[in-house]
Amino acid sequence: MLRPRAPRASGRSAGGAEGWWPSFTTGLRFLWRQRLLRRLTLVASAQNFVFDGVYLAIVVTIARQGVSALSVGMVTATSAVGAMAGVMLAPLAGRRLPSATLLLATGVVCAVLVAAMALTSAATALAALLAGCALAVAVSGSVLTLARLRHTPGHLQGRTNSTIGLLFMATPPLGAALAGVMLEGPTPAVFLVFGGLLAVLAAVSPGEGRSGRPTARRGMRRTRPTRAALRCPHLRRRRSPGRTWPVTRT
């Protein structure tokens, strides 16, 4: 009697599952070699650092006014509503605007909104400003997700995603700790400092040609070979695999 042969396991599956540390280091090495993903991840991690500090500062500011725990919970719920609105808005914004423009715009919006928190201590106003930040962060997060999917090979998607997620979770506690130290002083200064940090992050976010589609160099154009050029032996040799035709200046 013939029995169906089970498929042979190949690669790492034959030798057992890969450990978490080798998976993390593999994803980290790939992430570090990719300039675009590296910059996007570092900027987003720094933003998470800031936002956790901002959230703690808002909670402390509201609590010092003697408001109820329900009011603090409503602030959190409002920020969640803003984040959900940003998730729904992200596809439309991605179709209308280049990725670099989205990163810059959302970074500037967050910086302005956080700095504006220094002007008020009302729970309603702080909740509205926090919801606006959550909306902008959700839109900018779609840029990182799309860039990761486009620039990461299929067999490294899981490792890279895990590495990015770990980096995202590592920075928020540090931001909350910094906010706790600064809250010993004037509360408006905390929002101004974090707003300034967000402005710096918006300025260093990847620009045009690095976060969107590849763009041609300015003043340069690619020329297609003519039939006469194809008959030249020294030009035919340049059509080897992996080579491109020379770039001429206009």
TrEMBL record:
<dbReference type="GO" id="GO:0005886">
    <property type="term" value="C:plasma membrane"/>
</dbReference>
<dbReference type="InterPro" id="IPR036259">
    <property type="entry name" value="MFS_trans_sf"/>
</dbReference>
<keyword id="KW-1003">Cell membrane</keyword>
<feature type="transmembrane region" description="Helical">
    <location>
        <begin position="189"/>
        <end position="207"/>
    </location>
</feature>
<keyword id="KW-0472">Membrane</keyword>
<keyword id="KW-1133">Transmembrane helix</keyword>
<keyword id="KW-0812">Transmembrane</keyword>
<feature type="transmembrane region" description="Helical">
    <location>
        <begin position="161"/>
        <end position="183"/>
    </location>
</feature>
<feature type="transmembrane region" description="Helical">
    <location>
        <begin position="40"/>
        <end position="63"/>
    </location>
</feature>
<protein>
    <recommendedName>
        <fullName>MFS transporter</fullName>
    </recommendedName>
</protein>
<feature type="transmembrane region" description="Helical">
    <location>
        <begin position="125"/>
        <end position="149"/>
    </location>
</feature>
<feature type="transmembrane region" description="Helical">
    <location>
        <begin position="100"/>
        <end position="119"/>
    </location>
</feature>
<feature type="transmembrane region" description="Helical">
    <location>
        <begin position="69"/>
        <end position="93"/>
    </location>
</feature>
